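Backbone-to-sequence.
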């Protein structure tokens, strides 16, 4: 579904990605692991059109997308849940969700998708009229995922969904990620908690200083000595 070929990217003079190549098969959950500053968030920003690569190419369902504006990439079926949630704090939960469907033309199907999001995250239905800024961190993460789903993506990019959340909330969110995937949405997951990521993913890539240094089935990487020492803590 998604293919990166030799992608490089920079912020000014700072080289963030150096020839990254990876694939995300349709229907899978693929994890992107690495320390802070390894290039994980930059990779998602390049895919979603928020950052133009300096080299290489990105293909979604066989179509090259790295030269398209971000809104066009959303319309093709790619949604990005950014690190830190970035909900619209002064708008209500309901308004945030409706904004997620902004690029859609099939307005008549939006109520059904709202119901789907409320089915995944019942607390959002209860908080529908509350300003998003009054939600807890976990509820804001649920809202950010729900907002992305309102665009009806076929590929969901998740950047650090567990960041700053209590373990019980993290377990709930990861159960929902599995459910979203089982219902047909492909997921590319960036996650600092490598152990958690490797439990839900089918395949994983490890980034280090902007390069892929290791890749393989998640079950194999969990047994890899270097991964265990550097990312799993045992």
């Amino acid at each position: 579904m998604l293919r990166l070929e030799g992608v490089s990217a920079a912020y000014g003079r700072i080289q963030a990605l150096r020839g990254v190549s990876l694939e995300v098969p349709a229907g899978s959950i693929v994890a992107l692991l690495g320390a802070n500053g390894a290039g994980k968030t930059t990779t998602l920003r390049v895919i979603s059109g928020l950052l133009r690569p300096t080299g290489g190419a990105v293909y979604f369902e066989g179509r090259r997308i790295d030269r398209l504006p971000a809104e066009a990439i959303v319309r093709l079926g790619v949604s990005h849940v950014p690190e830190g949630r970035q909900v619209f704090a002064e708008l209500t939960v309901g308004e945030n969700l409706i904004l997620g469907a902004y690029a859609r033309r099939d307005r008549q199907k939006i109520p059904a998708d709202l119901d789907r999001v409320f089915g995944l995250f019942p607390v959002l239905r209860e908080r529908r009229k509350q300003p998003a800024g009054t939600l807890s961190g976990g509820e804001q993460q649920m809202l950010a995922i729900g907002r992305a789903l309102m665009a009806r993506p076929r590929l969901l990019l998740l950047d650090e969904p567990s960041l700053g959340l209590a373990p019980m909330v993290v377990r709930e969110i990861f159960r929902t990620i599995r459910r979203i995937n089982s219902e047909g949405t492909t997921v590319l997951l960036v996650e600092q908690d490598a152990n958690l990521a490797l439990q839900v993913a089918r395949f994983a890539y490890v980034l280090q200083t902007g390069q892929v240094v290791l890749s393989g089935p998640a079950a194999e990487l969990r047994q890899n000595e270097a991964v265990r020492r550097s990312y799993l803590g045992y």
